[in-house]
Amino acid sequence: MADPPTKKAAKSRPKSRLVVGLSGASGVSYGIRLLEALGELGVESHLVMSKAAEMTIGYETALTPKQVAAKADQVYAIGDIAAPIASGSFKTGGMIIAPCSVRTMSEIATGVTSSLLTRAADVTLKERRPLILVVRETPLHLGHLRTLVQLAEMGAIILPPVPAFYAEPHTISDIIDQLVGRMLDLLGYDWPDVRRWGEDLAKGRRRTKSGKTSS
Question: What is the mean pLDDT of each run of 10 residues along the chain (215 residues)?
Fold first, then answer.
């Protein structure tokens, strides 16, 4: 008599995994630093870059697309619509597109996705997972603003790359790190390179009733 079927052993899953998207807008250093931060935090990163992003890497950094890809745990081709991140059954903690171009945000807003980058973002929204869009464009016309409102109504988090000068940045790297830290804050990760008001910055601290400075 045949043995009864047994349940499959539960697969061990990574503690956390995030999807990182790089589009062709200026500011690709934000996405590159994000990959490095995820590595420092031990978060599994899944990267997809548009062709325009690969061009921007060459224009704005001393790196090659291959060197950027090496910073991620898993990399997918922009046209690989059969990639795991194109399916909602592939569990992730969310997705960050940094930088996010106007074309990319527009595709996500309409649901007419033409690449793995925007398909992965669409999946993130439909599965009710956090989607952070670091939209890099200025000034914004009315069409841009309406699209951003539509994305916010759909559940996306709009995070323009606005410098936090209260953090007393001295270099471009300081500005980039602060923004990357804020992205990670929104997903519940505490990255030590972010400088926090009321904690790391003396000017934001307040004295407690005991007379000690709060930290």
Answer: 51 73 97 98 98 98 98 98 97 98 97 96 98 97 98 98 93 97 96 86 70 59
- Could you tell me where the DSSP H helices lie in the chain? 28-41, 51-60, 65-69, 102-110, 116-126, 142-154, 172-186
Q: In degrees rounded to 5, what are phi and psi of residue 86? A: -85, -5
CA-CA distance, 193 to 186, in Å (whole number)? 15
pLDDT of the residue at 41? 96
Query: Residues 37, 39, 40, 42: is their CA dihedral positive or negative?
Result: positive
pTM for the model: 0.89
Classify the C-alpha dihedral 70-67-101-118 as positive or negative.
negative
Comparing C-alpha atoms, which of 18, 77, 16 is closest to residue 45? 18
CATH number listed for the domain at residues 17-204: 3.40.50.1950
Residues 35, 119: Cα–Cα separation, whole Å: 20
Q: Around Cβ 101, how many Cβ atoms within 10 Å?
A: 24
| Cα(145)–Cα(24) distance, integer angstroms | 19
